Amino acid sequence: MSKIWVGTNWKMTKTIAEGISYTKELKQIANELTSTIELFIIPSHTALVDIKKEVSDSRIKLGAQNMHWEDTGAYTGEISPKMLDEIGLDLVELGHSERRQYYNETDAEINKKVRAALKYGMKPLVCIGENIDQKNNEISQEVLAAQLKVCLKGLSGDQVKQVLVAYEPVWAIGENGIPADAEYVGEIHTFLRRTLIEMYPNIGHEIPLLYGGSVNLDNFLPYIDQKDVNGLFVGRTAWNMETFTILLKELEKHISE
Ligand code: 13P
After folding, report:
1. Cα(235) to centroid of ligand 1, in Å?
2. CA of 214 to the centre of ligand 1 (A)
3. What's the CATH number for 4-256?
4. pLDDT tens digits for range 129-157
5. In testing the pocket of ligand 1, which one of 44, 176, 236, 243 has its CB within 8 Å of the most ligand atoms?
6. Which of 93, 105, 130, 168 is catalytic?
7. How far is CA 164 from the centre of its chain?
8. Biggest alpha carbon distance in the chain?
């Protein structure tokens, strides 16, 4: 698998104006990249229409942070896949740990969202991760396998080819997160790869496995060097264009060496 996926979830951090100016800058950096990095950004819903105009003449892929699974209905405050399809997105992030933690999203609901995304030709970026209690009780692998199996339940091989998986340990995410050891990340990704191959013997090896959770300038290279890490899903380090530019340029240099 030669492509490396690198993207950022902006969470609830950028206004439309801030998002547009960020995207204009990122486009310039993206133009200078020659490698096989697949670059994506995931703004807030309010900014998607404007940012779609910005990215349409660039290599930057665009995604949404969440959506409902129904096309239409009485679901106050929700956004449907049909609505996102109108904007024309490449991907949709589903099941981020903050959605699971604060809005009680379940694997079964994420599975419905994954199917809805596929119906509209958007790549589901499925986030999975264990919490600190599960890690300390040494059941990370069981938890992750269960999340993966339920989130992808019922998908055909052709469908699962469109899926991206992000492993994001809950304890490693955000301001209070503790960056994971690269070796631990490597072991978990190899386990996830094995699980995907068991589930989909013909294409399990093709599904991109991204790593996320306190990715920063000190640790991104050791993470990407792990055999089964096919990309990075970055929060804070990518929200700042200066640090994100360094990350992208160093990564490109590293992978072309
Ligand atoms: P941080 O890189 O800020 O820890 O956020 C990671 C994340 O949640 C990406 O979805």
Report:
1. 4
2. 6
3. 3.20.20.70
4. 999 999 999 999 999 999 999 999 999 99
5. 236
6. 168
7. 7
8. 53
